[in-house]
């Protein structure tokens, strides 16, 4: 097994691998061939760890057991390949050397800090003459972030004359407008997509069956305690004038906040990791780290890294990180950070896992320390102004309540939380009827131009899936007429 070979080599030659990145026969599994030239609209991917099936079969070992030294070597190889390809193939017809540019996505977080360091090192090692542009899609983030980004770029510019100034890419719209007009994110990107597609379905697609258990699917299932989100009578809030405002759920927030950078056609490095989400995992399994597309060349050299790997690298090479983390390099307090993630400060994605940990700590009677607070409790405590503008004023706190996120140190929020959760509990007391109503609303949505409808047997399959009594034609007809 290649991972075992890498571990043995790492143990015996750790210093050489980490510090000098020397290559010997034990690194044969890291060999990659030269990228293929894109033809037409088809994009080519690298052959990281062989083909897709090989990456899939060895995913767990690669992500969790490959030593850091091996991962550094591998990532530097992917960066090197990408730099050479861009310089000699992508820009081969460009006569103006100053226009040969690659973007480095630099958000000021720990992942992009490590990416930035690796790219500059490889660029210097191979004496590349392609220009690097640190690019930042201006997220809804901490005030310390911009200062950190600018200071970091300034330090690296002293080492690399091909590093240009920061490219700031503003959001397409104000964040409050993005949420109101494009939709609020909830739980995860995949769940947000699923809810949006089902509620706006214009064809009798598989997802409108899978989500209710009418057809089997492990991919498109929505837990019973989240089904109320499909009911328009539950997804609204009251504005200052007591008007009912219906809110949309979607994954589009990121596209509009970071949209300007996403549509830049220049090649780019990004610091995403396959272990961060199911979508990123699937993308790496399919494409590997480097994507050589005619429309957009992208390198993701940290794809096989984990959070622990990133912090190990920061400690090993003594990198400075954003002060918003509350990281102490002397104590390497990665288990007791102020914030474990930065980026958009009010993004709810993944916060349900933080809440579950905090709730479990409290139920087990352990000491309630700030270490276990979720990101919104910390934000309320340490940056109340940002909390007010980005959580309360944007109404995203309603989404947090729907996710069952408690902000225990904000009494005003908790009062609204208990009132709203009581309504949700009432919805589930008549779950059978409400489930049927949700299905009827889906088939009655204004996007349904084909006027498709669920069959009686499909209603019954959905009810059986959630252990509810069957319905009949007369009940469905009456409810359809009522709705």
Keywords, please?
483 residues, 6% strand, two-stranded antiparallel sheet, globular, single chain, alpha/beta
Sum this structure up briefly.
With 483 residues, the chain is α/β, with parallel strands linked by helices. Helices cover 47% and strands 6% of the residues.
Please tell me about this protein's structure.
The protein has 22 helices and nine strands. It is globular. A hairpin with a 4-residue loop joins strand 8 (290-292) and strand 9. The longest helix is centred in the first third of the chain and has 23 residues, at 68-90. Helix 16 (375-382) packs across helix 17 (384-392) and helix 18 packs across helix 19 (411-429). 47% of the residues lie in helices and 6% in strands. The protein is an alpha/beta fold and 483 residues long. Strands 1-8-9-7-2-3-4 form a seven-stranded mixed beta sheet.
């Amino acid at each position: 097994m290649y991972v075992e070979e890498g571990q043995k080599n790492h143990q015996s030659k750790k210093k050489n691998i980490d510090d000098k990145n020397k290559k010997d026969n034990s690194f044969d599994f890291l060999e990659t061939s030269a990228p293929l030239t894109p033809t037409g609209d088809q994009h080519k991917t690298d052959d990281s760890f062989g083909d897709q099936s090989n990456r899939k079969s060895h995913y767990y070992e690669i992500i969790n057991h490959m030593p850091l030294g091996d991962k550094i070597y591998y990532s530097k190889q992917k960066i090197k390949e990408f730099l050479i390809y861009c310089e000699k193939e992508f820009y081969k017809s460009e006569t103006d050397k100053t226009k040969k540019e690659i973007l480095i996505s630099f958000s000021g977080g720990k992942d992009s800090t490590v990416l930035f360091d690796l790219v500059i090192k490889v660029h210097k090692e191979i004496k590349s003459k392609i220009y690097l542009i640190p690019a930042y899609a201006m997220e809804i983030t901490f005030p310390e972030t911009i200062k950190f980004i600018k200071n970091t770029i300034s330090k690296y510019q002293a080492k690399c004359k091909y590093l240009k100034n920061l490219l700031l890419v503003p959001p397409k719209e104000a964040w409050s407008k993005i949420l109101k007009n494009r939709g609020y994110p909830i739980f995860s990107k995949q769940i947000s997509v699923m809810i949006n597609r089902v509620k706006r379905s214009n064809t009798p697609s598989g997802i409108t069956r899978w989500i209710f258990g009418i057809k089997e699917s492990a991919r498109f299932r929505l837990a019973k305690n989240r089904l109320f989100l499909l009911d328009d009578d539950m997804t609204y809030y009251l504005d200052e004038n007591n008007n009912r405002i219906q809110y949309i759920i979607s994954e589009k927030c990121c596209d509009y906040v970071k949209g300007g950078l996403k549509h830049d056609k220049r090649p780019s490095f990004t610091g995403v990791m396959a272990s961060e989400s199911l979508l990123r995992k699937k993308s790496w399994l399919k494409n590997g780290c480097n994507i050589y597309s005619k429309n957009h060349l992208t390198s993701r050299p940290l794809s096989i890294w984990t959070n622990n790997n990133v912090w190990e690298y920061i400690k090993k090479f003594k990198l400075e990180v954003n002060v918003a983390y509350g990281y102490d390099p002397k104590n390497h307090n990665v288990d007791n950070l102020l914030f474990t993630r930065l980026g958009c400060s009010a993004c709810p994605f993944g916060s349900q896992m933080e809440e579950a940990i905090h709730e479990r700590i409290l139920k087990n009677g352990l000491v309630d320390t700030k270490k276990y607070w979720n990101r919104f409790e910390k934000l309320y405590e340490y940056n109340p102004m940002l909390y007010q503008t980005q959580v309360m004023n944007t109404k995203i706190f309603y989404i947090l309540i729907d996710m069952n996120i408690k902000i225990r140190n904000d009494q005003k929020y908790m009062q609204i939380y208990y009132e709203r959760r009581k309504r949700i509990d009432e919805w589930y007391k008549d779950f059978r009827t409400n489930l049927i109503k949700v299905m009827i609303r889906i088939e009655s949505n204004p996007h349904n131009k084909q006027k498709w409808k669920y069959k009686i047997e499909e209603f019954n399959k959905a009810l059986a899936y959630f252990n509810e009594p069957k319905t009949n034609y007369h009940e469905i007809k009456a409810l359809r007429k009522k709705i």
